[in-house]
Amino acid sequence: MDLRVNIAGVEWKNPVTVASGTFGSGEEYAEFMDLGRLGAVTTKGVANVPWEGNPTPRVAEIHGGMMNAIGLQNPGIDLFCKRDIPFLRQYDTKIIVNVCGRSVEDYCEVVERLSGEDVDMLEINISCPNVREGGIAFGQDPKAAEDITKAVKKYAGQPVIMKLSPNVTDIAEMARAVEAGGADAVSLINPLTGMKIDIYRRTFALANKTGGVSGPAVKPIAVRMVYQVANAVKLPVIGMGGIASAEDAVEFILAGASAVSVGTANFINPTIAAEIADGIAKYMKSCGFESVAEMTGIVK
Amino acid sequence: MAKYKERSAVISQEEIAKDIYSLWIETAQIAREAKAGQFVSLYTADGGKLLPRPISICEICREESKLRLVYRVTGKGTGTELFSRLKEGDEISVMGPLGNGFPTDRREKAFLIGGGIGIPPMLELAKELDCEKQIVVGYRDECFLREDLERYGTVYTATEDGSAGVRGNVLDAVRENGLNAEVIYACGPKPMLRAIKNYAQEKDIPCYLSLEERMACGIGACLACVCNSAERDAHSNVKNKRVCKDGPVFLASEVEI
């Protein structure tokens, strides 16, 4: 049995990474486990300059999940390259850098800078729901998504994963647009835009008013979208949205994902992503699968 | 500092004032490492309530691997209400110790100031500090933990309704009792901490504030629980610090509150 997967020419030792923004650059989780147990670490989004993020409260709990409006706080690409990349390189895992920006030029600047850095893949966040210029304009219009994909591909030195927003009418159309733009892979879903109101304080639970809904509560929507995208494009799909167990991860793989990301569940159990990788292996063994690719998308 | 996630056994629990619960748990690793001013993440067994609840450490008993947590039940159907139903022998998931904690090596005459549910961490701090201690506690109405605190210092009380001690807030109690100190350690609601920060600036004395903010991961990864810092922070590279990891205790001069 072989847990390895090949995503756009990059071989991961297992099909599990972590969702951007839930894992920092791994430092806090390295206190709990060997990051080398993961197929890849996907970093928190990084921009060309440091971003302050949104006012607090930035998170709220909902039944079976949470909402966040962090606002892509990040230290900027200079400090990231100096500190975070060497830190992650100590571990036997692939490095996926999530890139955010306010304009096409911002994205291209970061992508160009990273082309000379020792990282394995890029994930372009064109779908953060929490910052006005955090990419959502690119993530909700197929033409804009195709154009920004083309633009970053010109500068990219690594395979490019386009991260799709679920806050669209037709997710397959968005996937086809980034495929036409030259994307090497797609990942989905980013959180769904939601709102929570504190009825006693009579105000919004989040300072940003709206936030991204994530966690087990969104999983059926994510599985459906992964299925739609996997059947619409030839690109490898990295599936995420509420994965909290190996069984959840297998569901995404059967729906069409070549790999999976664990997000909100990291906040509940800091070693869950590695445990999910082990659990997938157990499932494969018990069901007689020889490879992850053999399971991918077999439920039609 | 090492952090652990453990299954922990409940030793005892009692309601010590209305909606205020005192919970003793057995945690082999966390109790060994914990210090005053740190907190733990408590997890409910309810799959609908995923996120850990950050709860300050009230007392540490290292020899017996025990922690005391004193917390407020924040409403019906909340995670804290679920915790309040725990009984001796029940199990609960806990992660910690988290955060930096108070410095305990200073020897100056001190104010330990707690407001409401910010009072519990003052008890372990009072135990660990070796100095002249004036413990100033403020309540809305019903008092708790005063007898515990009296073992480690002189306790001055303020209540909003005047039912015990000075009518008013903790700084009213400081003034009416004619108190002074050379260093302040404080935990409580933000308006109280703002007033204490101003007081410390006026008196030109060092002041340590324990802050509270909505958290998700509790370990410094998600950047949910930030506070504004006076200077650019070395980790965030912006004027933000993480309450869960860089704090919860900050020098008042480091943070904008």
Protein architecture, described:
The complex is a heterodimer of chains A (300) and B (257). Chain A has 300 residues and is α/β, with parallel strands linked by helices. Chain A has a single domain, classed as Aldolase class I (TIM Barrel, Alpha-Beta Barrel), CATH 3.20.20.70. Helices cover 32% and strands 20% of the residues of chain A. In chain A, the strands form four sheets. An eight-stranded parallel β-sheet of chain A has the order 3-16-15-10-9-8-7-4. In chain A, strands 5-6-14-11 form a four-stranded antiparallel β-sheet, with no helix packed on it. In chain A, α2 (104-115) runs parallel beside α4 (142-155), α4 runs parallel beside α5 and α5 crosses α6. Chain A is globular and about 55 Å long. Chain A starts with a strand and ends in a 5-residue tail after the last helix. With 257 residues, chain B is of the alpha/beta class. Chain B folds into three domains: 4-98, Translation factors (Elongation Factor Tu (Ef-tu), domain 3, Beta Barrel); 102-207, Nucleotide-binding domain of ferredoxin-NADP reductase (FNR) module (Rossmann fold); 211-250, Dihydroorotate dehydrogenase, electron transfer subunit (Dihydroorotate dehydrogenase B (pyrk subunit), domain 3), CATH 2.10.240. Chain B has helices at 28-33, 79-84, 120-128, 146-150, 170-176, 190-203; strands spanning 4-17, 20-26, 39-43, 53-56, 59-61, 66-72, 91-98, 110-115, 133-139, 154-159, 166-167, 183-187, 207-210, 226-229, 240-242, 249-251, 255-256. In chain B, β9, α4 (146-150) and β10 form a beta-alpha-beta unit. Chain B is globular, with a radius of gyration of 18 Å. The mean pLDDT of chain B is 97.
